[in-house]
Amino acid sequence: MENPAAAASFTLLDYVVFVFMLVISAGIGVYYAFIQGGQHSSRDYLVGGRSLTAVPVALSLTASFLSAITVLGTPVEVYLYGASFILTCLTFVLMVGISSELFLPIFYRLGITSTYEYLEMRFDKAIRLFGTVLFIIQTLLYTGLVIYAPALALNQVSGIHLWGAVISTGVVCTFYCTLGGLKAVVWTDAFQVVIMVAGFLAVIIQSVLLQGGVSIIISDSAQGGRLNIWDFDPNPLRRHTFWTVIIGGAFLWTSAYGINQTQVQRYVSCKSLFHAKMSLYVNLVSLWTINLCSIFCGLCLYSVYKNCDPWTAKRVNTQDQLMPYLVLDILRAYPGIPGLFVAAVYSGTLSTVSSSVNALAAVTVTDLIRPYFSFSEQQLIWTSKGLSIFYGALCIGMAGLASLMGGLLQAAISIFGTIGGPVLGLFVLGILFPCANSKGGLAGLVSGLAISLWVCIGAQVYHPLPANTRPLTLKTHGCNFTIAEAALTNWTRYPTQASYITSAQQNKALDRPWLADNWYSLSYLYFCPVGTLVVIAVGLAVSLLSDSSCFPPCILPTQGATRNADKFDLVGKYEKKSGNTNIAFCDVELDITKYQSRRTLT
User: Fold this and answer.
1) Cβ(426)–Cβ(259) under 8 Å?
2) Which pLDDT band, with edges at 50, 70 and 90, does 524 fall under?
3) pTM higher than 0.85
4) Is 433 left (phi over 0), alpha (psi -120 to 50) or beta?
5) Residues 6+ apart with CB under 8 A from 307
6) Which range, of 493-497, 534-538, 576-580, averages the lowest pLDDT?
7) pLDDT tens-digit readout, 452-510
8) In Å, how far are 411, 497, 522, 537 from 460, measured between CA atoms?
9) Which of 125, 154, 517, 528 suits a disulfide with 252, CB 3.0-4.6 Å?
């Protein structure tokens, strides 16, 4: 196949479709800033006045994390390694059940704006600040990656300057996020999810027509080993198996949807607990839809290029350019459709970045400003808007770091798992173990974060060998090579690297320390559960050692079991003789939260 990038470029209609999406997104921000009355309090700006309904919040929940990473990264994951990632659909079921029944009721009934307010109620102020700082770091790193992804796509398909696209992405989403607050972010997310699905469908429909039917695509994928779903190998070093995707994914997605500020802020913006729970279950359907579309796009990608891999043939510079390459290759005869796909990529980015910017502003105001400064409501609104601009600019800068990372999907999951895992462990420790105290919480969080960073950084320094990552075969015999290009077919490359590795270089790579091929080769999906379990184990051990009297409550909670009792006993005087003192489950929780809600934004 010829290089579509050399034969096609954006037409006027492509630009019209793309700009239309940007104008609608910006217009929603203007609408909620001026036409619908604006924001009269920080509560209106940060949590939408707690008046939103389930469906738009559900679509926003989907858009917040299934971003350009999903549009560009997941199809490439399937193309290179197979469709085992489809098991995340089962993982989503586990995540929704845990989040809706364990975490959501606590955060909603406490009436909090920042997730990390709970950490101060349960432990102390130091742990709350630690959690806030970790969230800010995690979100900035992830958002930088999300901004870089569509800029890469635009650069590939239209020739727009890479960093010009990065800056424009940040500016547009910061604009409507700053003007319209959470309501603008939620409704823009809902619109952008529709655009994402439309972009996927355009690629799928044309691929099916081009290849001669769905059965041909499935057959090609099966013959190429891409339908490797049911792999029950228990080896934790294997990159993707049934167990790594289900177990690792359950921890990962629960950390993203159960306790992450970006998502919790949407739950608590609903007008009732029923709408909050329904938003999660409706979100499950939209998660399935987008995930299945992205995975089938990966199968289409393989079916089209099964005999001529554009990456090996050096038709693209990085693996993350494969989807834009496919779009121009099969859809260039249909003006406006390539623009729709790039609009889908851009929609994924705008939704995630705006959600992140809004969440960053919320935690900064709630956790770092409001407790220490006596600001009026109007001053808090202007502070929140100023912070939105600041974090938007900072996210653009963080995109520079993203350009140094490898595959988009693995890089994004590694970031979330490394930091999100220990934070998830801290919340689980506080909610499920009444005996845990602030000393145990802090020790567990530090230990879990240290272990997670150790394995993540080690994996970046010593990339896992193909024996563990198990890349699938990519063929080039159907390409029209020059002699020089044909020599590339005798080379071997690691899927997580954008470069080719000669046989001599691969042999040299075998001289590696023991940790490199064991600990550092742990599947990246296990980074999150490792951090979570270390926090729980260390937290409980330190709690028992620092206060041996709390051992019985770990087995059967009794009076005073909820720690931080010397400062803030949530249920002590109300508890029943059965000893159910944890605020997650106690019968008097609703009475307590009347008191708690007065401490939050009103």
Assistant:
1) no
2) confident
3) no
4) beta
5) 475, 476, 477, 478, 479
6) 576-580
7) 989 888 887 888 877 777 888 888 777 765 534 444 444 434 444 333 344 444 444 45
8) 10, 10, 12, 26
9) 528
Contacts of 517 (CB under 8 A, 6+ apart): 462, 464, 465, 468
- CA–CA distance from 71 to each of 124, 179, 195 (Å)? 40, 27, 11
Residue-wise pLDDT tens digits, 549-575: 555 444 333 343 344 433 434 333 333
Q: Which residue has the higher pLDDT, 387 or 28?
A: 387
Q: Which of 319, 360, 356 lies closest to 67, judged by CA?
A: 356
Q: Which amino acid is at 98?
A: I
Q: Are 336 and 17 in contact (CB under 8 A)?
A: yes
CA angle (11 as vertex; 8, 16 as ends), nearest 5:
145
Instruction: Give me the phi and psi of 52, to 5 degrees please.
Output: -85, 160
Confidence class for position 405, pLDDT limits 50, 70, 90:
low
From the number of C-beta atoms within 10 Å of its C-beta (0-12, 13-18, 19+), residue 559 rates as: middle
Torsion of the alpha carbons at 82, 87, 92 and 95, rounded to the nearest 10: -110
- Within 8 A by CB and 6+ apart from 423, the residues are 131, 134, 135, 255, 259, 445
Asked if 468 and 239 count as a contact pair (C-beta separation under 8 A), the reply is yes
Q: CA–CA distance from 20 to each of 90, 346, 353, 392 (Å)?
A: 36, 12, 19, 22
What tokens appear for 384 in the block?
């929140």
- DSSP 8-state class, residue 402: H
Kindly state the tokens that stand for 218.
């499935």
